Amino acid sequence: MDHNNTPEIIYDKNGKAYEVVDFNNDYTGDKLGFWFFLFTELMLFGAMFLVFAFYFYRFSADFVEASSTLNILLGGINTFVLLISTYFMGMSLLDLKNKKISQAKLKIYITIGLSIIFLVIKYFEWMIEINHGIYPDSSVLNAKEHGQILFFGLYFTMTGLHGVHIIVGIALMLWVIYLINKKTINNKKYVVLENVALYWDLVHLVWVFLFPLFYIIGRG
Amino acid sequence: MTHDQNNTLTKSMFIKMFILLTFLTILTLLQPYIISTTLAGVVGIQMFISILKTFIIGAYFMHLKYEVALFKYIVTTALITLAIFFIITAFDAIYRNQTYDFFY
Fold first, then answer.
1. Which of A125, A154, A158, B84 is the most exposed place for a label (fewest CB within 10 A)?
2. What is the pTM of this model?
3. Which one, of A189, A6, A169, A178, lies nearest residue A88 by Cα?
4. CA neighbours closer than 13 Å in the CB half-sphere of residue A63
5. Are the CB atoms for A114 and A81 separated by under 8 Å?
6. Cβ of B38: how many Cβ atoms within 10 Å?
7. What φ, ψ does residue A9 adopt, rounded to 5°?
C-alpha cells in the first residue's frame, strides 16, 4: 500500500513534533530486525570459527599441511570477485538514493554476475579436491591424519555454508530487481535494498576470515 | 518517511574505502611470500589484516559509522559474546589435561 498522505504528527510534553510511523513503513524497525538477523548469522559462523580455532590449535601441523594442498589461485581470485561484488552492491544503493534507477539495477545485475562467477570458481575448486578423492568420509580422506580429516571436514562445511549464503544472496538480489521494477523500491523507500546490501557485506566479511584461515596458513 | 541523514556515506569516501580494502586484500595474498615468519606470526598478521578489513567493512560498507547507537550496540554485543566463547574455549584448548585444566 502506498502512503503518500499527509503525515500524522504527535507532540511530546516539550512541544517537539514526531511523525507517527505505522509498522508498514518503519525504516528503523526494518533495519533493527535485519541487524538482529545478522546477529544470529555472526553467532552461526562464529561458532564454526570457534571449532576451527580449537582444532587448529590442537592439530596445527596437520592443518598447515592440508591448507598447502588447496588452490590459492582460485581462492585468491574468488576473494577479489567477492570484494568487487560488494563494491557494486554498495554503489547500487548510492545510485538508487540519487534517483539513478537504471544505474542501480545495472550494478545489481553485475553483482549477480560476479556471484555466479564466485560459485563457478568454487565448483571447480571443490571438483579438484573431489577428483583427488578428498570429500567428507571418503576412503582417501579417512586414511589421512586426524587433523587433516578435521581440516577438510571444516573446509567443505564452512565454504559450503558460505556458498549457500551466496545462492540466497543471488535470490534476494533478483527479488530486489523485481521490487525496483514494481517501483516498490525507489529513492524514497530503499530499506529492502539496504538490508540486502548489509547481508551481502556479511557474506563478504565471513570470506575475509575464511580465506586466510583455509588458504594462507599453509603458505607461511 | 524518508531518511536523509545529515551524515551519510559519500561516493568518494566509499571508493576510497574500496581502494583501501583492495590494498589490504593484496597484502593478505602476498604476506606469506614477502614476510617470512612462524605459523603464529602468519596467523597473527593475517588476523590483524582481517580485523582491520572488518572495521572498514562494518563502518563504511555496512554504514555503522553513520547509524544510530542501537545498531552499534547490537554489533558490539555480538562481538563481546563471541569473544567470551573464544576466551573460554582457548583455556580449554591450551590447558586440557594440564595442571591448570579448568574443566577437569
1. B84
2. 0.88
3. A169
4. 24
5. yes
6. 9
7. -115, 135
Domain-embedded: residue A9: no
Query: Which among B37, B70, B89 has the least Cβ separation from residue A54?
Result: B89
Mutation pick from A78, A97, A208 vs chain B, by most beta carbons of B within 10 Å, is A208
Nearest alpha carbon to residue B57 among A42, A47, A122, A98: A42
Q: Which of B68, B48, B72, B63 is nearest to B17 (CA)?
A: B63
Q: Where are the domains of chain B?
A: 9-66, 68-104
Q: Using a CB-CB distance cutoff of 8 angstroms, which residues of chain B are in contact with residue A86?
A: 57, 61
Specify the amino acid at residue A30.
Answer: D
B66, A198 Cβ separation under 8 angstroms: no
Residue A20 lies inside a defined structural domain of this protein: no
The 10s digit of each residue's pLDDT in A78-111 is 999 999 999 999 999 999 999 999 999 999 999 9
Task: For residue B97, name the pLDDT band (cuts at 50, 70, 90).
Answer: confident
> Is A160 part of a structural domain of the chain?
yes
- Please state whether beta strands A9-11 and A17-19 pair in parallel, antiparallel, or not at all (unpaired): antiparallel
Q: So what's the ipTM on this one? A: 0.87
Residues of chain A contacting residue B78, judged by C-beta atoms under 8 Å apart = 38-39, 42-43, 46
- Residues 6 or more apart in contact with residue A160 via CB below 8 angstroms: none
Report CB contact under 8 Å: B31, A216: yes
Exposure string of A122-147, with b = 16+ CB inside 10 Å and e = fewer, is beebbeebeeeebeeebeebeebeeb
Residue A2 sits at the chain B interface (C-beta within 8 Å): no
**Across B39-59, average pLDDT:** 95
A52-78, pLDDT tens digit by residue? 999 999 999 999 999 999 999 999 999
Which grid coordinates are listed for A121? 570458481
Judged against a pLDDT cut of 80, whether residue A24 lies above it is answered with no
**Domain limits at A60?**
41-219
